[in-house]
Amino acid sequence: MTDATAFVPGHVTGFFTVNRDEDPTKAGSRGAGVTLADGVTVRLEPGDGVELNGETCDLEAVARVLDALRSTAHVVVETDLPLSAGFGVSGAAALGTALAADAVFDHGLSENELVTVAHGADIQAETGLGDVVAQARGGFPVRLEPGAPAHGVLDGIPATREVEYLARGQLGTEEVISGDTDAITEAGRQALSALVAEPTLETFMHASREFARETGLLTPEVRETVQAVAEAGGEASMAMLGESVFALDTGLSDAGYDAERCAVSLAGAHLR
Amino acid sequence: MTDATAFVPGHVTGFFTVNRDEDPTKAGSRGAGVTLADGVTVRLEPGDGVELNGETCDLEAVARVLDALRSTAHVVVETDLPLSAGFGVSGAAALGTALAADAVFDHGLSENELVTVAHGADIQAETGLGDVVAQARGGFPVRLEPGAPAHGVLDGIPATREVEYLARGQLGTEEVISGDTDAITEAGRQALSALVAEPTLETFMHASREFARETGLLTPEVRETVQAVAEAGGEASMAMLGESVFALDTGLSDAGYDAERCAVSLAGAHLR
Question: Do A272 and B160 touch (CB under 8 A)?
Fold first, then answer.
């Protein structure tokens, strides 16, 4: 086999709903977020096992993608994004694996088919609900309907901006999305309804903050940081699902934080 | 008003169908093509009138977009792409105008809504059938169902490649798509069916050449160039609708032509 490398942008969700379904191509979430030029590279080499930033690692979503594509490879995942902190690294690793495996093994699948495989793997591993479809698209993705391409419907907020982010701790996606999610889904539905009425960044940030407060997902540390950004005249909210903050422009550094800065990803996931 | 600038990739269609409908959001085409990192920038300034590469110009699709958005502006369109040669400059100008107008006038529309306005304008001006939805997406877009986002369905060929192109003459989109298009649509349907069965670049190029031959759209000059590329071991076909040739990698220069080279556009249309 030859090598292949894919790049997948990071993805931060501002608000979301939980849409369960026995069919993983129909399961997922509505919501909205931002894709980051900081992302994940995935390289497939001969061998087996998964390596994340140089260490052997168990990434269930990646294993599920290889299994679905009946492929065996050594998967090298590299990222500067914070782990388990709401940046969609799991979904990115799954999608990058699907793209690279298609190239290496000549599976001859379309982009929608590869996104479907990776989305299903992320759902079944309970590591993400809507990262994969957003990461395949780029920009500021709005998930109007949940699910893989055959069922999901995407739109976008027309904007190009710099963003900043800061991880303050870890939060497991699985614990939240496997519990009672009715209140989350109701708050997510209201946030999406406000954003659809006026799909601007201002509405997105405002709706995201409301969602974080109403669902009780906002942690004290994140609340303090978001408030500090607002007091410095900026716009920030919580990265779902992680104990992390994201802000427009230089919102975090203006408030005195030592944050990472990057552009919104104009491109979706792609082979290199 | 403040200024705003949008960038829209060029788009070459390899094959297509003609799907007429009284509703311009349902009209369009099925088919497949490649978006180019060489594209069109559109800047909106105070004033009125349209300027293309420094000269006053009548671009009906641009006028229709401004009209639909009830906006008045001086539209400055700049591109290095060949004009009336199958590179989707008209659709790009329309889509760039929609994105920039939304930013300048705070219309608060979503990306799908702006794509819909530009698609409708390109259809009604009879300058394009599927360029706008492809240019909004980037990559190698496959148009599975015709129309604007509410009706159209897109997929993509998972590949990242360099391409070359060469304009050999001009060809009017309007004359071809306003005539009898049954044979074109039947050939386009067959080409799409082959590509869906195996969505690879090899199938795309092969299906595009078959389409160009079967429809009789292939001109003697283009045929000669495509053959010369094949004899040099490359892959080329005709850019629909223009008297132009596009090739994978360095296919045209390997065959001795002085062609433009650029990457496939990873990003879709976006504000700058």
Answer: yes
Whether A270 contacts A7, CB under 8 Å: yes
CB contact under 8 A, B268 and A138: yes
Q: Which domains does chain A possess?
A: 1-272 (3.30.230.10)
pLDDT at residue number A170: 73
pLDDT in tens, A196-215: 999 999 999 999 999 999 99
pLDDT in tens, B18-51: 999 999 999 999 999 999 999 999 999 999 999 9
Q: Does B196 touch chain A (CB under 8 A)?
A: yes
Question: What one-letter code names the amino acid at B245?
Answer: V
CA dihedral over A148, A150, A155, A160, signed as positive or negative: positive
pLDDT of residue A185: 96
B151-157: long-range pairs with CB below 8 Å, 24+: B151/B25, B151/B26, B152/B28, B155/A110, B155/A111, B155/A112, B155/A149, B155/B199, B156/A110, B156/A111, B156/A112, B157/A110, B157/A111, B157/B32, B157/B195, B157/B199, B157/B200, B157/B201, B157/B204
Q: Tell which residue, A196, A269, A195, A179, has the closest CA to residue A237.
A: A195
Question: Considering only CB atoms, which chain B residues are within 8 Å of A108?
Answer: 198-200
Residues A33, B265, A115, CA angle at the centre, nearest 5°? Answer: 50
Q: How confident is the model at residue B172 (pLDDT cuts 50, 70, 90)?
A: low
Record: contact B267-A267, CB cut-off 8 A: yes
Mean pLDDT of chain A: 95
Query: Could you give the strand order of the β-sheet that contains B236-239, starting from the edge strand earlier in sequence?
Result: B236-239, B243-248, B162-169, B260-263
Q: What DSSP string describes A159-174?
A: ---EEEEEEEE---HH
Question: Residues of A with CB below 8 A from B159's CB?
Answer: 103, 271
Instruction: Give the span between the Cα atoms of B11 and A27, in whole angstroms.
Output: 34
Q: What is the predicted pLDDT for the residue at A173?
A: 66
Between A157, A160, A267, which is nearest B110 by CB? A157
Read off the pLDDT of residues A7-33 as tens digits, 9 standing for 90 and up: 999 999 999 999 999 999 999 999 999
Average pLDDT value for residue range A88-99? 97
